[in-house]
């Protein structure tokens, strides 16, 4: 009796429909595994690198002659936070993307670095749209400053510590990572690997999913909304261009503006900076919205002329196999994507990180 039951289970398990479902769900699983691996590696490396700094800082606070213990000075640690993050993310992002793509065979790194299939004019418009969305989000975040004050303070401290350092080497390293290296690595991970791993059934859902994971990737509630909105645009342009080069340029422009803003905030008086920030934000939003509308109108007008398809090289299932399942697109995307065990683990860590930041600052 037990053998008959086991046989029926094996037959059910090996049915073509169930095999197809597992392949679809497996890709979504690896989209979450990818960001999970990135978080795990980056957090472990951060702890390992920070331990010597904490020990040195603790030793320096022990005033033996006075027989007293002074508070631990974290200024030096904050000053090195961006270079430390750079080391962690360069390793973590690259390894996570490589492992996920190697296991799933969804694509290869070089598949994302083709010449963009959109012209430079559209990329320029996309850059303006990126800055507009980012500044619109900044204004919205300011309206809810009481809710996001802790995460904003943590973000400001970590960024300004390296950018405003007296050590020129630290400044160069910090600017290089925030403005150039970081954007490229994040695009490789989110618009490269994760977009491929989550967009094999619906490219549109892949854009949403990669943007959602891009928000979680920052482990900061105030950055989540900004990253999610920008992620939608970055994913859309990646899908249209079949390359991460345009999205990397957009990302570099956005982060470079953040770097410039930090320097202006340090050099100008508070009132002068507020006037500059308001003028820049309003101007960016107006131009950005106009650019976004122009991009959407252009792609709608030239829809029949496009040959965009998906940036995924190898799909786990064929369109015929998907059709035979008889499932709706929502069941094939949303339900499968948000019911992976790795989703719950990653999302739980995201919530924990947001709460931890709120309690610390």
Q: What does this protein look like?
A:
By secondary structure, the chain is an all-alpha fold. It has one domain (21-360). 80% of the residues lie in helices and 1% in strands. It has helices spanning 2-13, 16-61, 75-79, 81-104, 120-143, 145-163, 168-198, 203-217, 221-241, 245-267, 270-301, 319-325, 329-337, 341-360, and strands at residues 62-63, 68-69. Strands 1-2 form a two-stranded antiparallel sheet.
Write the layout of secondary structure elements.
Layout: H1 2-13, H2 16-61, E1 62-63, E2 68-69, H3 75-79, H4 81-104, H5 120-143, H6 145-163, H7 168-198, H8 203-217, H9 221-241, H10 245-267, H11 270-301, H12 319-325, H13 329-337, H14 341-360
Antiparallel strand pairs: 1-2
Helix pairs in contact: 2-4, 2-7, 2-14, 4-7, 5-9, 5-10, 5-11, 6-14, 7-8, 7-10, 8-9, 9-10
Secondary structural class: mainly alpha
Q: Tell me the domain tally.
A: 1
Could you give the distance between the termini?
A: 62 Å
| Strand neighbour order, sheet with most strands | 1-2
Residue-averaged pLDDT: 83
The biggest sheet amounts to: 2 strands, antiparallel
H/I helix tally: 14
* Rg (C-alpha, Å): 23 Å
Number of β-strand runs:
2
Summarize the structure.
The chain has 361 residues and is mainly alpha-helical. Helix content is 80%, strand content 1%.
Structural descriptors:
two-stranded antiparallel sheet, globular, mainly alpha, 2 strands, single chain, 361 residues, 14 helices
């Amino acid at each position: 009796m037990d053998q008959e039951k086991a046989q029926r289970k094996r037959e059910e398990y090996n049915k073509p429909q169930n095999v197809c479902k597992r392949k679809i769900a497996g890709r979504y699983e690896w989209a979450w595994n990818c960001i999970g691996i990135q978080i795990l590696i980056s957090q472990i490396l951060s702890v390992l690198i920070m331990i010597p700094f904490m020990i040195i800082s603790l030793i320096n606070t022990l005033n033996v002659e006075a027989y007293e213990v002074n508070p631990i000075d974290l200024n030096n640690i904050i000053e090195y936070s961006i270079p430390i993050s750079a080391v962690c993310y360069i390793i973590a992002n690259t390894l996570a993307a490589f492992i996920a793509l190697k296991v799933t065979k969804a694509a290869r790194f070089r598949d994302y670095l083709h010449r963009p299939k959109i012209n430079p004019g559209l990329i320029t418009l996309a850059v303006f749209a990126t800055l507009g969305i980012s500044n619109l989000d900044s204004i919205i975040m300011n309206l809810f400053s009481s809710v996001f004050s802790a995460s904003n303070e943590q973000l400001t401290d970590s960024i300004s510590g390296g950018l405003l350092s007296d050590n020129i080497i630290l400044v160069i390293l910090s600017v290089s990572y925030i403005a150039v290296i970081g954007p490229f690595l994040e695009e490789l991970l989110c618009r490269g690997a994760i977009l491929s791993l989550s967009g094999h059934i619906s490219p549109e859902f892949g854009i949403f999913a990669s943007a959602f994971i891009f928000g979680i990737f920052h482990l900061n509630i105030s950055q989540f909304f900004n990253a999610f909105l920008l992620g939608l645009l970055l994913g859309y342009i990646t899908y249209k261009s079949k390359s991460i080069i345009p999205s990397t340029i957009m990302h570099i422009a956005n982060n470079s503006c953040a770097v410039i803003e930090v320097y202006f905030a340090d050099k100008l008086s508070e009132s002068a900076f507020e006037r500059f920030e308001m003028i820049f934000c309003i101007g960016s939003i107006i131009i950005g919205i106009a650019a976004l509308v122009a991009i959407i109108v252009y792609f709608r007008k030239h829809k029949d002329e496009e040959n965009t398809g998906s940036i995924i090289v190898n799909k786990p299932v064929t369109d015929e196999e998907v059709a035979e399942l008889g499932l709706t697109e929502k069941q094939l995307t949303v339900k499968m994507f948000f019911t992976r065990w790795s989703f719950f683990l990653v999302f739980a860590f995201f919530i924990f990180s947001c709460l931890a930041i709120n309690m610390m600052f």
